[in-house]
UniProtKB/TrEMBL annotation:
CDD domains: HTH_XRE. SMART domains: HTH_XRE. This is Helix-turn-helix domain protein. Residues 8-63 form the HTH cro/C1-type domain. It comes from Methylomonas methanica (strain DSM 25384 / MC09). GO terms for molecular function: DNA binding. It holds the Pfam family HTH_31. InterPro entries: Cro/C1-type_HTH, Lambda_DNA-bd_dom_sf. It comes from the Bacteria.
């Protein structure tokens, strides 16, 4: 289940609101809310998110948690075209194996991704990115 689906179900249960009641509050079909909750649809549109924030009067941490859950539920990834080819190969390998990863493997990958944060400013980046020259630099 994606993070938004989990958040929506949890917040609805905490508030004691049925899907039909929520659909009346925000003006969307109950079937759409159900599809969002089971992860069949998503992430929701910005309009849906704003109506949900207003209808449930989400503030502070709840609102931030919702917005992070929406962002984390995005199933598409756009890669800058000037990234090193190793990035593309790594992502291809991940696409090929993501459905077979164990929870331990997922946690390990997430820990590796956090390594840069733990090094702070002393982290030395390896690899390179191609940088396009501006038109003025390219003229001869």
């Amino acid at each position: 289940m994606n993070p938004f689906a989990c958040f929506l179900h949890t917040i609805r249960m905490q508030r004691g609101i049925r899907q039909t009641e929520l659909s009346d509050l925000i003006g969307y079909e109950q079937t759409y809310i159900s599809a969002l909750e089971i992860g069949k649809k998503g992430p929701p549109t910005p309009e849906f998110v704003e109506k949900l924030i207003t209808a449930l009067d989400l503030k502070g941490e709840e609102r931030e948690h919702l917005l992070k859950a929406v962002e984390a539920s995005n199933r598409k990834l756009v890669i800058d075209s000037d990234m090193p080819q190793d990035v593309f190969w790594m992502l291809q390998e991940l696409r090929d194996r993501v459905s077979d990863l164990t929870l331990a493997e997922i946690q390990l990958i997430r820990q590796v991704l956090k390594l840069k944060e733990s090094y702070g400013n002393s982290y030395v980046e390896s690899g390179y990115r191609l940088h396009r020259r501006k038109k003025m630099e390219a003229q001869m």
